[in-house]
Amino acid sequence: MPEFITVGKGPQARNIAVEYRPGRGPCLVWLGGFMSDMRGSKAEAVDAFAAEHGRACLRFDYSGHGESEGNFEDGTISRWCEEALAVIDVHAGKAPVLIGSSMGGWIALLVTRHLRVHDRARAPSGLVLIAPAPDFTERLMWPSFDEATRSAILNEGKVVIPSEYDESGYPITRGLIEDGRNNLIMDAPILTGCPVHILQGMLDADVPWQHALAAMERMPADSVAMTLIKDGDHRLSREEDIARLLQIIAGLEPGGPDAQR
């Protein structure tokens, strides 16, 4: 059973479901994607890897996701980032490794930027980004919407868009779009202060590999690598994809080859 951490005050308070596995550091912190949860196959594989190697591991569900409280339609990048920071503050310790999938890649980069300024001891020692989607609300979603969809978002406050992952579709709110504009990071250099490894499928229809490459090009440090999987889709949940992910995580072990770059 998860524990719950309360984030926010008054009417904004929500209980966030957290799974923490004690172990040696640096803690592996899973940051999930849009409408996903901490029980997905990649998150479970990271937790199993941590158990096998005696590593600390931290997973949680954003508000409106999985086992956490809250209405998904109240969610924004700022709100979910606040929750990630709160959970990390409680459990992750010093210099965690952040593993961000899709939207979680954006959250990971925002968390990194915040910690580098406000709590350097907790700034990550490594980032693993799986099909990272920084600025996706503005660079991927908004340009793909027709005028009717944009009008519905602006005038009615939300629209439900079809999704191959959920037959009921995804609600996209005006709040999500407008808040996303306050959190854009790809218009300036992305400073991580640690090694970064990106895992990206070239058949990804949701986050094209060119988007991940554009994010990588904005990271001026030398310690940035990308693994492109020619037949990989957005989920990258096949056995061979997960094996690559775990190999990358293992490479960020203190003293490992990626950690030394």
Mind explaining what this structure looks like?
- This protein is of the alpha/beta class and 261 residues long.
- The chain has a single domain, classed as Rossmann fold (3-Layer(aba) Sandwich).
- The chain is built from eight helices and ten strands.
- The strands form two sheets. An eight-stranded mixed β-sheet has the order 1-2-4-3-5-6-9-10, with helices on both faces. The chain has a two-stranded antiparallel sheet with strand order 7-8.
- Helix 2 crosses helix 3 and helix 4 packs across helix 6.
- The longest helix has 16 residues.
- The radius of gyration is 17 Å and the shape is globular.
- The model has no long low-confidence stretch (mean pLDDT 95).
Q: What summary fits the major beta sheet?
A: 8 strands, mixed
Any guess at the CATH architecture? 3-Layer(aba) Sandwich
Task: State the end-to-end CA separation.
Answer: 38 Å
- Structural domain tally: 1
Give a count of the beta strands, DSSP E runs of length 2 or more: 10
Shape: globular
Instruction: Please count the helical segments.
Output: 8
Strand content: 15-25%
Task: Give the strand order, joined by hyphens, for the main sheet.
Answer: 1-2-4-3-5-6-9-10
Nearest-integer average pLDDT: 95
| Structural class based on helices, strands and sheet pairing | alpha/beta
Roughly what percent helix? Answer: 25-40%
The named CATH superfamily: Alpha/Beta hydrolase fold, catalytic domain
Rg: 17 Å
CATH topology (level 3) name? Rossmann fold
Query: Could you spell the SSE succession in H and E letters?
Result: EEEHEHEHEHHEEHEHEH
List the uncertain runs.
Answer: none
The CATH class: Alpha Beta
